[in-house]
Automatic annotation (TrEMBL):
Keywords: Cell membrane, G-protein coupled receptor, Membrane, Olfaction, Receptor, Sensory transduction, Transducer, Transmembrane, Transmembrane helix. PROSITE patterns: G_PROTEIN_RECEP_F1_1, G_PROTEIN_RECEP_F1_2. The keyword Magnesium does not apply. It comes from Alligator sinensis. It is found in: Cell membrane; Membrane. The lineage of its organism: Eukaryota, Metazoa, Chordata, Craniata, Vertebrata. One of its GO terms (molecular function) is G protein-coupled receptor activity. This is Olfactory receptor. Its main location: membrane. Belongs to the G-protein coupled receptor 1 family. Coiled coil: none annotated. The chain crosses the membrane at residues 26-45, 57-80, 100-118, 138-156, 191-223, 235-257, 269-287.
């Protein structure tokens, strides 16, 4: 039996209802999105064109940057466009599409960050076996596994939501289509589905976070036996990953590891992992990484030399 969808479109209440704030937000979020796309594209181009950035860490980083561009593109353009209109609407199909790709790419990012932590663990704790363990084939399968995990996570979330009957209220108190706000609009008891959402997204976020924290704890313990120079280099690399992990997983755990209730702070917290984290990733990884900065300098010098000729 098909669910009753009398609602053909949803009205998004947006990030703010203040017109002056919306104009400021339009400029700011347009800038954030441009920085996100340019920054992540620059990382991808640098890694692909540099002969020195060939380790698995940079292979994973290029895919993380690609996911960040896609993830930001699913959320940001709609959000930015809505700052310019009074009535912010989204069709039922577009809403479910945004929900699917948001969770697909968000889930893929979680798995990629976990894979990157495993890569750092092998590089620092088992350096002699690193190249035999982290082969190109293994890295390829890990990336494929991350995409597959993200897809399976998202398809569950989307199917759970599309099977709900939406027959009346259509105002979403958010700037995007997500499971929690949509559950509030369904014309049925959503308690069980709310628990399934927590079990799916919430436990996925928490499990990945625990694995990440454990791996970094093991890395930090193993660093005690290193020289000061080796310790500082390893800590510098790990610090970048830990910063990204905290910025991404902290808000996700806050949002999804709880029953299907919403808080006024949800929209602000959501901005962290949908807008800020994709934008900050390139900055965090380049500012703390001499190899990436050197590769970018070389690429820039080569471009200037070619232009002069």
């Amino acid at each position: 039996m098909e669910p009753a969808h009398n609602v053909s479109e949803f009205v998004l209440l947006g990030l703010t209802q203040n017109q002056e704030s919306e104009q400021i937000c339009f400029v700011l979020f347009s800038l954030f999105y441009a920085v996100t796309v340019v920054g992540n594209l620059l990382i991808i181009i640098t890694i692909k064109s540099s002969k020195s950035l060939i380790s698995p860490m940079y292979f994973f980083l290029s895919y993380l940057s690609f996911v960040d561009i896609c993830y930001s593109t699913v959320i940001a353009p709609k959000l930015i466009g809505d700052f310019l209109v009074e009535r912010k609407t989204i069709s039922f199909a577009a809403c479910m599409t945004q929900l699917f790709f948001g969770h697909f790419l968000g889930g893929t990012e979680m798995f990629l960050l976990t894979v990157m932590a495993y890569d750092r663990y092998i590089a620092i704790c088992k350096p002699l076996h690193y190249m035999t363990i982290m082969t190109g084939r293994v890295c390829g399968w890990m990336v494929l596994g991350s995409w597959t995990g993200g897809f399976l996570h998202s398809i569950v979330q989307t199917l759970l939501t599309t099977q709900l009957p939406f027959c009346g209220p259509n105002e979403i108190d958010h700037y995007l289509c997500d499971v929690q706000p949509l559950l509030k609009l369904a014309c049925t008891d959503t308690y069980v589905i709310g628990l399934m959402v927590v079990a799916n997204t919430g436990m996925l976020s928490l499990t990945c976070f625990v694995v990440l924290v454990t791996s970094y704890f093991v890395i930090l313990v193993s660093l005690r036996r290193r020289t000061t120079e080796g310790r500082l280099k390893a800590l510098s690399t790990c610090a970048s990953h830990i910063t990204v992990v905290v910025l991404y997983f902290g808000p996700c755990i806050f949002m999804y590891l709880r029953p299907s209730i919403t808080f006024p702070e949800d929209k602000t917290v959501c901005v962290f992992y949908t807008v800020f984290t994709p934008m900050l990733n390139p900055l965090i990884y380049t500012l703390r990484n001499e190899e990436v900065k050197n590769a970018m300098r070389k690429m820039w010098i080569q471009k200037v030399d070619l232009d002069d000729k």
